[in-house]
Design a protein that fits this description.
Radius of gyration: 33 Å
Strand order of the largest sheet: 4-3-5-12-6
Distance between the termini: 67 Å
Helix content: 40-55%
Number of strands: 12
Number of helices: 10
Structural class: alpha/beta
């Protein structure tokens, strides 16, 4: 049964006459009559008793009417669901960032934003900083948060924030009483940091080389969560990270962040990037503003 047949049948069943159905459907009476007759012929079932005062459903017609009504409601429900899906897709924001931002800070920001704007949904891709920028340039991600040393062609930097490398440790650590540290101060304690290839590892190795020392970490991993757990579990472990990455976590768990004085460790910035010259929709602009405010607060 075609949807058009059912629509005409349902209108006649509801209004009780061909003329009333024609008026409701904005078609000729002959068109309504033809569709109903075609339907009866295809089914080889009489659906209406034609009477002088209108069309009366047969028992078989009443069964079809119930089906037609259910079908109409189901179609309306499916259409509504499709509109909801399209709306969610149109309000989706895809973000790419390295592990350091995906571990705690960015999920915290996104969670708060969704609380305020529940119609917005997010996809979060955890990749290295170089790949995050590439995903934005390729149009696969709307926004990238990257630890960067220099700008990139095809990228517009919405904002840039201090991402100086700091020392994370227990508040009971022997070094916790010092206001500032040198990399040499860390040489006597177990150290947890990222693997070779990251900007953090590169800058730390440069700072150690210029200071004339060599420090081999006790634990190397590209997961900030793993480093954070090592610091929490080992009383003398020192971890390296930025203030933004652990914003809102350290104080409650008895940890402190200490500045490292070597200038090389302050060369890294945290950039919020989008595709160059792209016109951002309103919900993305709103999130970018929200994110920037949180980054400013966290990096202070």
């Amino acid at each position: 049964m075609q949807e058009l047949n059912l629509r005409f049948f349902h209108s006649v069943a509801k209004t009780g006459s061909l003329s009333a159905a024609a008026e409701e459907l904005h078609v000729a009476v002959s068109a309504v009559s033809r569709q109903v007759t075609n339907l009866e012929q295809r089914l080889d079932i009489k659906l209406f008793n034609r009477q002088p005062r209108g069309m009366q459903l047969t028992e078989a017609g009443r069964l079809l009417q119930a089906y037609a009504l259910r079908n109409q409601l189901q179609v309306s429900s499916v259409i509504e669901q499709m509109h909801d899906v399209m709306t969610r897709q149109q309000r989706k924001i895809t973000v790419a960032c390295p592990d350091g931002m995906a571990w705690h800070f960015l999920p915290s920001v996104i969670s708060e934003f969704i609380t305020q704007c529940p119609d917005t949904c997010f996809d979060l891709h955890m990749v290295d900083s170089v790949r995050a920028s590439e995903l934005v340039k390729e149009g696969e991600a709307d926004i990238a948060l990257t630890f960067s040393l220099s700008p990139d062609i095809g990228i517009h930097v919405v904002s840039s924030h201090n991402a100086a490398i700091r020392a994370l440790m227990s508040k009971h650590h022997p070094l916790a009483s010092k206001a500032e540290l040198h990399v040499a101060d860390l040489s006597q304690y177990p150290l947890s940091m990222s693997l070779n290839g990251s900007t953090m590892r590169y800058l730390f190795d440069v700072a150690c080389s210029l200071s004339g020392i060599s420090i081999q970490p006790s634990f190397s991993c590209d997961s900030l969560g793993a480093t954070y757990t090592m610091v929490c579990e080992h009383p003398n472990m020192v971890g390296l990270c930025s203030a933004v990455a652990v914003s809102g976590k350290t104080q409650a768990e008895g940890l402190v962040l200490k500045p490292l004085l070597e200038p090389q460790l302050a060369l890294r910035s945290l950039q919020v990037q989008v595709m160059a010259e792209r016109q951002m929709p309103a919900h993305m602009k709103a999130f970018l503003g929200f994110l920037d405010h949180r980054l400013i607060t966290a990096s202070q």
